[in-house]
Specification:
Shape: elongated
Number of strands: 28
Distance between the termini: 51 Å
Structural class: alpha/beta
CATH superfamily of the largest domain: Vaccinia Virus protein VP39
CATH class of the largest domain: Alpha Beta
Largest sheet: 11 strands, mixed
Strand order of the largest sheet: 1-24-2-21-20-3-6-8-7-18-19
């Protein structure tokens, strides 16, 4: 080992003991992998779709997603708002490749290999998120615990929660008569992230009694805790106008505290039940129509409980008074109402006009449980439903693809109209399909980046998932398929070349440099008329043009001077000479070395700022 490597190894050994997830890895190998080479993009025009003269931000990247993420770290750092991935589940059924071979169930290191495989990719993905970005990760029951601990390490204090997705309705392979019918989607978000929610329906708010506080609707007075969990919230309440008493539900205690149960009222964060009653915020049943009973003796009360002739829970019809209640004698000799009081919820008291998203993703055949409080997402079962990859491609091309309904539902809530969505386990391309479908429904301009490998192996050297499934599905979705109209759009198909950092400037071709600079400048690929042109315009607006000069010649300088833009950002192999010539021609020029920009953000180098540096008339 070198001295630096030895220091790193010793530091790792001294700090390895910790609470949490531990797996076999080498920090030195991690550093070597990330800095091994420079990743350069190559545009494959033939595999791209509908490319024109405009930059294309929809990208499909063929190659190992570790290399794809290294490239994106240099081009899209802090630009991706939503990442969704469906990584291999590490089932041992040849569902993923590690070190060029499938990992089987009997591999004693498969869990460590899986964790390290994901860790290296998640660390890179973390640097891509915007300050209000989010990553959504699908996983099954078997590996949820491991993945959650890994996510906690990569995204400390960023866990927002998890969705539980109903994937099926029983199966024939249950063990111990226990059917696992769900999967998860873990959610880790930056501090500025929020789901979009959905506007509440205020049509239910009326004012039949001309309440001066305005429209209102009835709400539940109960809260989701039992008598055992919240003993202080279990107490009887009385209508002060009629004297009628109402028992509390032992399974759903009152939402508000009682003045009779709280010693120090200053500790309360909300008003008490008695305050709300005095403010006429509790709606009691109409005494003209309500059944009211008085049990004069304990025997009468016991007989009523035995006969089930006591107030009942509204939904389950279970008795509110039972023989095991400790305060049963309280109800003897008091008028007891059989109706239920409700809370008077005024529109002006609504703190948010949006309903949050429920963590439960129901199946397609389940009832919609959405209400005024939450939105209940819906998704079909895994690998089923219309518009799946297998239906679009006409073959059983991809095993168990995620249904379009699932990804669409998640992205509708997670994205804004102009977001970039990344999936670096793109597989069947469902994420890209969902992005296009959402844009078609709300007129948005979301862009997708799909990273997929070929998954070729020794037995099947021609296998290419990215080309034949991911890209082909997106091509058909855009153009139309099986009687389904196309959603339109375009994508650039990129392949990756790995170059030694020491030789990057010499080995990189103009076609690779053009795409790399364009991706860094505007997050988009371009299709220039020719990579042999003396000067290539990478990006431009009315005032500024970014230009790449492959070879500094008189023709290249003349073509650059002829541009109508007064301010230029120019990349070339001879930045000083180019800067002098363009300045002499009256251009405000920021001239930079293309060699530095090739490796910027890669192979251990720092990311550079591609904003045009201030150039003034005085500096000329």
């Amino acid at each position: 080992m070198t001295e630096d490597e030895l220091r790193r190894e010793l530091a790792e050994l001294l700090t390895r003991q910790k609470l949490g997830l531990v797996w076999e890895h080498s920090a030195i190998d991690r550093d070597k992998a990330i800095n091994a080479n420079v990743v350069l993009p190559r545009l494959d025009h033939a595999l791209s779709h509908n490319l024109g003269s405009e930059p294309c931000q929809n990208l499909i990247i063929e190659g190992d997603n570790f290399d794809s993420l290294r490239l994106l770290r240099a081009t899209h750092a802090n630009k991706i708002r939503v990442i969704y991935i469906d990584p291999p589940y590490n089932t041992g059924n040849k569902d993923w490749v590690y070190n060029d071979r499938y990992t089987g169930k009997n591999d004693r290191w498969r869990h460590s290999q899986w964790l390290e495989f994901l860790y290296q990719r998640l660390v890179l993905a973390r640097d891509l998120l915007t300050p209000d970005g989010v990553i959504l990760v699908s996983i099954n029951e078997d590996n949820r615990a491991r993945l959650e601990l890994l996510m906690d390490e990569v995204f400390p204090s960023r866990k927002l929660g998890s969705f539980v997705w109903k994937t099926r309705s029983g199966s024939n392979d249950e063990q111990a008569l226990f059917s696992v019918d769900h999967e998860y989607v873990l959610v880790y978000a930056q501090p500025g992230f929020k789901f979009r929610g959905e506007a509440k329906d205020f049509a239910q708010y009326k004012n039949p009694d001309n309440d001066p506080r305005g429209p209102w609707k009835t709400g539940d007075l109960g809260k989701g805790h039992t008598r055992a969990e919240r003993p202080n919230a279990y107490y009887p309440i009385q209508n002060p106008r009629t004297g009628i008493w109402y028992p509390c539900n032992p399974a759903v205690v009152w939402r508000f505290a009682s003045e009779t149960r709280v010693k120090d009222k200053s500790t309360l964060r909300a008003k008490t039940m008695e305050q709300y009653i005095r403010e006429d915020k509790v709606i009691f049943p109409d005494p003209r129509t309500e059944r009211v009973v008085v049990w004069k003796t304990k025997a009468e009360l016991h007989a009523a409980i035995a006969a089930g002739d006591v107030p009942l829970r509204p939904k389950t019809k279970m008795p509110l008074l039972t023989m095991d209640l400790p305060d049963l004698d309280f109800w003897i000799g008091k008028p007891v109402g059989f109706g239920r009081p409700w809370f008077k919820r005024h529109l002006r008291d609504v703190q948010s006009e949006l309903r949050p998203v429920s963590s439960w993703i129901r199946g397609a055949v389940e009832d919609d449980l959405s209400d005024d409080l939450t939105i209940n997402l819906m998704a079909q079962r895994s690998g089923t439903g219309e518009h799946s990859a297998n239906e679009i491609l006409g073959t059983n091309a991809f095993p168990y693809p995620k249904p379009l309904s699932l990804i669409k539902a998640l992205l509708e809530q997670a994205t804004q109209p102009n977001d970039i969505v990344l999936d670096f386990f793109a597989g069947s391309g469902t994420t890209g399909h969902a992005v296009l479908a959402i844009n078609a429904s709300d007129g948005g301009n979301r862009q997708f980046i799909l990273c997929s490998s070929t998954e070729s192996n020794v037995k099947d050297t021609d296998r290419n998932i990215c080309r034949d499934i991911t890209a082909e599905r997106m091509r058909r979705v855009m153009a139309g398929y099986v009687g389904t109209p196309g959603l339109g759009g375009s994508f650039a198909y990129l392949t990756l070349d790995l170059v030694d950092p020491a030789d990057a400037q010499l080995d990189a071709g103009s076609h690779q440099i053009t795409q790399l600079l364009s991706l860094r400048l505007q997050g988009a690929a371009i299709a220039p008329s020719s990579y042999l042109d003396p000067m290539i315009v990478l990006a431009a607006n009315q005032d500024i043009a970014a230009v790449y000069i492959p070879s500094v010649t008189q023709d290249a300088i003349a073509a650059t001077v002829a541009l109508p833009h007064r301010r230029l950002l120019v990349f070339s192999t001879r930045p000083d000479t180019v800067g002098e010539l363009l300045t002499a021609a009256g251009k405000l020029c920021d001239s930079r070395s293309v060699g530095k920009e090739i490796s910027a953000g890669q192979a251990g180098s720092e990311q550079t700022d591609l904003r045009v540096r201030p150039v003034t008339e005085e500096s000329l």
